[in-house]
Specification:
CATH class of the largest domain: Alpha Beta
Helix content: 55-70%
CATH architecture of the largest domain: 3-Layer(aba) Sandwich
Structural class: mainly alpha
Bound molecules: tryptophan
Distance between the termini: 31 Å
Number of domains: 2
CATH topology of the largest domain: Rossmann fold
Largest sheet: 3 strands, parallel
Number of helices: 16
CATH superfamily of the largest domain: HUPs
Strand order of the largest sheet: 1-2-3
Number of strands: 5
Strand content: 5-15%
Oligomer: single chain
Amino acid sequence: MTKKVILTGDRPTGKLHLGHYVGSLKNRVKLQESGEYDVYVFIADLQALTDNARDPEKIRKSLIEVALDYLSVGIDPKKTTIFVQSQIPELTELTIHYMNLVTLARLKRNPTIKTEIKERGFGEAVPVGFLTYPISQAADITGFNANLVPVGDDQLPLIEQCKEIVRTFNSIYGDVLVEPEAMLSENKVCNRLPGIDGKAKMSKSLGNCIYLSDDKKTVASKVMSMYTDPNHIKVEDPGNVNDNTVFTYLDAFSTPEHFAKYLPEYKNLDELKEHYKRGGLGDVKVKRFLINVLEDILEPIREKRKYYENNIEEVYNMLNEGSKKARLVVKDTLNKVRDAIGLNYFNK
Ligand code: TRP
């Protein structure tokens, strides 16, 4: 039996952060270790260039940072094919074929793109490559016949767009492309981790991130500055655990084992929350606990990162090998696509 294919990627526009970790990276490692899937993970440098064309150096630098982040969280190139989008020109030809199947109106309606255009203040001056990146993303997914795409919930409209392209293509040219499904995290907070300022999403552009590569001191000071309940002024005051970033992070990261290890007066998060709601529990105590929880996760990641930082050549080789291997898969898909459209004039 052939294994199901899982594919997902990240734009290299900076280092990866805790939002990526709970939303996606952690789950990728789990899927990889299950042995049940063919897993592809890639660095979407072409997509990153669609709104960074004038700053390619940023993408080049981030590419290696993201690769280091992958390896240090435990994505293992022996089990997962790690590749770089730009090294597979066949993806770009797939994009060209799909472009004929998508209207301008449809692209402009895509909620993710709409938000991103607004955030960037593009208006009508949006680069064509940016507006059309959902089509290129559909090529990424279908090029590998991906069945499952693990993503955060902001990516759902892009998966929807991809499905539409698959259906349209298959209805015109015959059953060639595989229709993917999004794979969301089971833990809801993990699909959209807020920033340390409590804003909707941890994001580099909002400057509210804890990076996987942050050192211990930086993590501690970021947690200490975190947004909590503004009405919880004195320790005795009853506090609110909803919209309280420290508790949202504990929802995402803490386990009963963390309580046994660092805060044995409480059995689990529910007990801690009850105490906070009653009053008599100070923010600093909860924050100190969160720092311990995060350090438990981040320390081993930092250690691994150190090794790869000292062996950068090895990392580039790994990306090159992964890209060569991945390219063969997309070559095959493209060939089928060209056949289906009827472009292989000289093969028969
Ligand atoms: N759009 C994704 C992001 O911003 C990156 C991406 C590009 C991707 N191509 C993809 C994700 C294909 C999943 C599948 O993070």
